[in-house]
Automatic annotation (TrEMBL):
Residues 194-291 form the Glycoside hydrolase family 2 immunoglobulin-like beta-sandwich domain. Keywords: Calcium, Glycosidase, Hydrolase, Signal. Its EC number is 3.2.1.23. This is Beta-galactosidase. Residues 53-190 form the Glycosyl hydrolases family 2 sugar binding domain. The keyword Membrane does not apply. Residues 294-515 form the Glycoside hydrolase family 2 catalytic domain. InterPro entries: Bact_Beta-galactosidase, Beta-gal/glucu_dom_sf, Gal_mutarotase_sf_dom, Galactose-bd-like_sf, GH, GH-type_carb-bd, Glyco_hydro_2, Glyco_hydro_2_cat. It is an enzyme of class 3 (hydrolase). Residues 1-18 form the signal peptide. It comes from Pedobacter aquae. One of its GO terms (cellular component) is beta-galactosidase complex. The lineage of its organism: Bacteria, Pseudomonadati, Bacteroidota, Sphingobacteriia, Sphingobacteriales. It catalyses: Hydrolysis of terminal non-reducing beta-D-galactose residues in beta-D-galactosides.
Length: 948
């Protein structure tokens, strides 16, 4: 009976809450996947001039109406360009419950582009709303027919009648759209109700809340109950509204609250009531966190008394099929992807995001810069004041929001700065993201796109430095390229607060006027670390390693390795002893194995060190007695939430040991050398390799089983010079040898054919000075290539200043035509530079051939590609199709291409390679494997981009 009575009380409480909370009725769908069809008329462009249907929420361009505009079209097409001022006319019939009569009923728009005029049953709901990214509402209680059909009419103008609104958010460097793109709903509350709350919850447990009331009752009691998310009540506070004030402030203290940080996103909830004569009239519920944010001038940014360093990214609200109309699942995906890079912060560029995104930042832990629109020009004060209010009252209670950003890159109206504190009880600092020096505000300099040298100077200045845009990631430039140097500057500098990479994802839209093509508007919008559907580019995993809070710099196991590894704690709050470490001893699959990958032969765990943030120390891997008999050691670190921080792999065996199984002789016949006409031919087993007597270069390859192979025209020295001098040959025991002499920087190349058919190539060259790359090249037709399997670091390509994010393994990549930043977004890119190659097997329509090296640190370049588009693709490539290199170039960024490519702008890793003296290497070639059974038109299989 007792249990039944408790259940009855719980049921009554739930019923009471349901009856006294605000009731919601959606008129549109809830997101871009759950829509409702409304009547629609478009005034211009496609499908204009007649009534039809449109799905709400959504942009009309994505449903075949109107015309597409990129915000900077006026730059592209000249000063006389005028944006299409399309209007969308919406109609929708709806019914409200008769029981709502006597309540305050609001119609709420979460977002509409841009000027929005609302009528209900032919009557104006209120003033036209101007501004695309903000929640707005009208009280329509006196315009409704209760229990009957009602007519909603909405006119949306793509361009605003207020030029300052257009300047702030329409004439911008991003796609602009039209339409009601976020949900529309009715919200019914009692006449006396809580309109909104503003919470200030500090790290010391002090709690203060402004309760903003509509139609306040004299003598009503305002009550707040604070609970943790498990429902445990931790505090209650109340106050009698004796003067019927429209704002009542409640205060209390919670003892020893669990604090909110991006590393420990502890949340609480507060239920707020209006009670009259012991009866609850209305109640609301908010989530919040206890934390204290401080800007200590000339020092740093502090949360809960500890300095933080921001590892952030700029994010547009975006999905290729639906533009800025998204859903909670996509918001959650993006938060997880950002945290998956070991980032801890996000800038909402250049407008407030969907509410769901902020909810996930709260619950999973990301610091947020919430930004008022203003791309490079600002709202007028008249237009901006109501928008600041709408943004802040919607978002103020999110503990994840660190700062308010009052516009971007000069789009700052200084008269709006003091407006934020009117609605934010916690009085967060207001910042300006800008691209001009000298525009620091409130002790923080957010200047964009400073280089390594100027960053050093700024960090030595008086202000905290927190660039809200840096490392511009157009195409495959920057992003993680150079980030390691820049991040170390911020981490080690007193006033370095970190920064925000531009940008999260390529902003490519599915063009409904161009058969569904993905359009990133040329070089304007392919700026992401991910593709438009969140395909991971090479920078993604590189950032994951660079930003790893479990910071390991060990690149190679030393000869005296005893299991001890140095580590630095780059958390801001968390001791490394909360991490979980696991290790594996591995052997790698061979070329003849059907699949790439490795075999785990032994595994175990290690104890993470007791290191506080910013401390350095070491930990011990408990090595097995026979650990040196395995090929590699892998270590995985997971955080306190069970999420992977990073996985490192170190070779145990040398390249020489790793390639020995490949070089075993399969035939016992003697290798031979013959001379005929202009060719000298080495033959081993079934393989013939011919060299030109006129150039010394490899000229022809043949296999008795698979005819000719088109690998030829090398070696060519890619830096320096080498002039052919003479060629000679001889037989030595069961081997046959060709020796080619050169003058210049390369002297001698010696080829040794073994009876098995393996061809050994020994070469050296001498360079003194700085070069973008160094090594040799051969030619091979790219269109013959199906893919490649290799033992080395992968699966992504690298640059000299982006060597991170790749791990040692046997990988297999299929040939694709991806040029990063444009369709098709297939990753990893096949063409590029690959690092630490032990062996490489090319899979072609002519057969398979393998190259291996016994020395370390070989880079292989595959075919023609570029990192950055421009008047000429950058950086420049070595000659030839396939290169074997001792050094590779760094890649710059969009900002470094205005005059000349300048990858060095982001630090020492961007400098050219410096060579002194002789460089020696041995390559082994085997051209005797069977032809591929894959057809010539082989296409890489599709993957699920959301889960794979």
């Amino acid at each position: 009976m007792k249990n039944l009575f408790l259940c009855f009380l719980t049921f009554c409480a739930l019923q009471s809450f349901a009856q006294t909370q605000t009731q919601i009725q959606y008129l549109s769908g809830k997101d871009n996947e759950q829509t409702v069809a409304w009547d629609f008329w478009c005034t211009g462009g496609r499908k204009a001039g007649f009534w039809t249907k449109i799905n709400v929420p959504g942009h009309w361009e994505q449903q075949g109406f109107g015309e597409y505009n990129y915000g900077r079209d006026y730059v592209t097409y000249g000063k006389n360009f005028r944006f299409a001022d399309e209007k969308g006319l919406y109609k929708h019939q709806f019914t409200v419950p008769a029981a709502w009569k006597g309540k305050d009923v609001y119609i709420v728009f979460e977002g509409s582009m841009t000027d929005t005029e609302v009528k209900v049953n032919g009557k104006s709901a209120g003033a036209i709303h101007q501004g695309s990214f903000y929640r707005f509402k009208y009280n329509i209680s006196d315009k409704l027919k209760y229990g009957q059909a009602n007519l909603l009419e909405v006119t949306v103008s793509k361009m605003s009648a207020d030029n300052s609104v257009n300047n702030a958010e329409r004439l911008a460097d991003y796609w602009i759209f039209g339409g009601i793109y976020r949900p529309v709903y009715l919200a019914a509350s009692p006449k006396q109700h809580i309109d909104w709350t503003a919470i200030d919850a500090k790290a010391d447990g002090s709690f203060s809340m402004n309760v903003n009331l509509k139609n306040p009752l004299k003598g009503a009691e305002i009550i707040a109950e604070i609970s943790d998310l498990k429902g445990n009540l931790v505090a209650t506070t109340k106050q009698i509204n004796s003067q019927a004030d429209s704002v009542v402030t409640l205060k209390t203290t919670v003892k020893n609250p669990a604090l909110w940080t991006a590393e420990t996103p502890h949340l609480y909830q507060v239920k707020t009531y209006i009670s009259q004569a012991g009866k609850n009239i209305h109640q609301t519920q908010d989530r919040f966190g206890f934390r204290t944010i401080e800007v200590r001038k000339q020092d740093g940014i502090y949360v809960n008394g500890k300095k933080i360093k921001l590892k952030g990214v700029n994010r547009h609200v975006w999905w290729p099929e639906t533009g800025r109309s998204v859903n909670a699942r996509l918001d959650l995906q993006d938060v997880k992807l950002i945290k998956g890079m070991n980032m801890n912060a996000v800038r909402c560029s250049h407008y407030p995001p969907d509410k769901a995104f902020l909810n996930y930042c709260d619950s999973l832990g990301l610091y947020v810069l919430d930004e008022l629109a203003g791309w490079q020009k600002a709202y007028s004060t008249k237009a901006g004041e109501p928008l600041v209010k709408e943004m802040v009252i919607r978002d103020a209670n999110h503990p994840s929001i660190l700062f308010w950003s009052n516009g971007n890159e000069g789009g700052h109206n200084f008269s709006l700065i003091d407006d934020y504190a009117k609605y934010d009880l916690s009085k967060r600092t207001v910042i300006h993201g800008h691209h001009r020096p000298g525009n620091a505000i409130n002790g923080i300099d957010c200047n964009h796109y400073e280089d390594y040298n100027s960053t050093q100077k700024i960090l030595a200045d008086t202000n905290i430095y927190m660039p809200t845009e840096f490392m511009h990631a157009q195409d495959d430039g920057a992003g993680a390229a150079g980030l390691s140097d820049m991040w170390d500057l911020h981490w080690n500098a007193k006033k370095g607060a970190g920064g925000f990479i531009w940008a999260f994802a390529d902003e490519a839209i599915v063009r409904t006027d161009r058969n569904g093509m993905l359009d990133a508007n040329g070089v304007n919008a392919p700026d992401g670390l991910l593709g438009p559907h969140r395909e991971k580019e090479g920078s993604y995993n590189a950032i994951k390693e660079i930003y790893s809070p479990f910071k390991i710099v060990l690149q190679k196991l030393p000869d005296n390795f005893d299991g001890k590894i140095e580590v630095e704690n780059r958390y801001n709050f968390t001791n490394l002893n909360t991490c979980k470490l696991s290790w594996e001893l591995l052997n790698f699959n061979l070329p003849e194995d059907k699949t790439a990958g490795y075999k785990v032969l032994k595994s175990g765990t290690a104890i993470a060190p007791n290191l506080e943030p910013f401390e350095k120390g070491s930990f011990q891997i408990p090595l097995a007695a026979d650990w040196k008999s395995y090929q590699a050691l892998a270590l995985t670190a997971k955080d306190q939430h069970g999420e992977e921080i990073y996985r490192w792999v170190w070779k145990i065996q040398t390249n020489e040991n790793l390639i020995n199984p490949l070089l075993k002789s399969k035939l016992s016949a003697k290798a031979t050398v013959t001379e005929k006409d202009s060719l000298i031919t080495l033959k081993g087993g079934e393989i013939s390799v011919s060299f030109s007597k006129n150039t010394g270069r490899l000229s022809a390859l043949a296999n008795d089983k698979s005819a000719a192979i088109s690998f030829r025209d090398g070696p060519v020295l890619v830096s320096g010079n080498a002039a052919f001098s003479k060629i000679a040959y001889r037989e030595e025991g069961d081997k046959a040898i060709v020796e080619v002499q050169y003058t210049g920087d390369m002297k001698t190349v010696t080829y040794t054919m073994y009876p098995s058919g393996w061809l050994q190539m020994d070469y050296s060259f001498a360079l003194n000075g700085k070069y973008p790359f160094a090594g040799i090249s051969f030619n091979y037709p790219e269109n013959y290539v199906l893919g490649a399997k290799f033992l080395g670091k992968g699966p992504f390509r690298v640059w000299k200043n982006r060597l991170q994010g790749v791990t040692y393994n046997t990988w297999e990549n299929f040939n694709n035509n991806t040029q990063t930043g444009s369709a098709p977004w297939v990753f990893p890119e096949f063409k590029g530079y690959y690092s630490n190659i032990t062996w490489l097997q090319m899979n072609t329509v002519e057969g398979k051939f393998t190259i291996a090296t016994p020395q370390e640190d070989l880079f292989v370049r595959l075919f023609d590609f570029y990192g950055l588009s421009g008047m000429q693709p950058h950086p420049a490539l070595p000659v030839g199709d396939i290169s074997f290199l001792e050094g590779i170039p760094a890649v710059g960024s969009k900002l470094g291409l205005r005059i000349t490519p300048r990858p060095q702008m982001y630090g020492p890793a961007g400098e050219m390679n410096e060579f002194t003296g002789e460089q020696k290497r041995t390559l082994y070639f085997f051209f005797g494997l069977e032809p591929s059974d894959k057809p010539n038109n082989f296409v890489m299989p599709k993957v699920n981009i959301l889960t794979d």
